[in-house]
Design brief:
This protein is mainly beta. The protein contains two helices and 13 strands, in the order E-E-E-E-E-E-E-E-E-E-H-H-E-E-E. It starts with a strand and ends in a 9-residue tail after the last strand.
Length: 177
């Protein structure tokens, strides 16, 4: 593989770059791809369950241990998740976050395959598994083909589709479709 460009630290991918035949870059779409949900939990300081559609549902929990250079424990923290995503304690209660970037995609393989493309069309086909974060990808090839495509996962919200307010986490009626 003969590719140059911008890479992410500790990552083998080149999200902005070029090879001998194709050059690519990206800009943010500016799309609203996150939502917050106010959750009702069973314990305000150390919850294990959250209310959903009139029933209690167990939170996913994972204990994280942070260690120093000598292996000593510096801190521990419990990460909690609802079916929508991570749970955050705020001064106004518990909020869960749904964000397209937290949902599985195959971005690394998409970029690896795209780096081998010889035409703009091949590049876009290689990027089909790409889901997040939503980006505008611009591509040009040696033959003079130039393209721009807004690529990624975008939420389909119920009702009026607004994503600029905190939603009621007690019901699935506000979940993305």
């Amino acid at each position: 593989m003969d590719v140059y460009g911008v890479s992410l630290p500790m990552s083998p991918i080149v999200p902005i770059g070029f090879n001998r035949d194709v050059a690519w870059t990206a800009t943010n779409t500016g799309a609203d791809v996150t939502d917050f949900y106010r959750e009702v939990v069973d314990d305000s300081t150390s919850p294990t369950k959250y209310e959903l559609d009139g029933a209690w549902r167990a939170l996913e929990q994972r204990v994280e241990i942070f260690r120093g250079k000598g292996g000593e424990v510096l801190a521990t923290d419990t990460l909690r998740r609802t079916h929508r995503g991570p749970l955050l304690r705020t001064s106004e209660g518990w909020l869960s976050l749904r964000w397209t970037a937290l949902e599985a995609g195959d971005e690394a393989n998409a970029f690896r395959n795209a780096a081998r493309a010889t035409t703009a069309d091949e590049w876009y086909r290689a990027m089909e598994p790409y889901k997040a974060p939503a980006q505008n990808f611009l591509v040009a090839d040696r033959a003079g083909a130039i393209g721009i495509r807004s690529t990624g996962r975008f939420p389909i919200r119920p009702g009026d589709g607004r994503g600029d307010r905190i939603l009621d986490g007690r019901t699935r009626k506000v979940d993305w479709q």
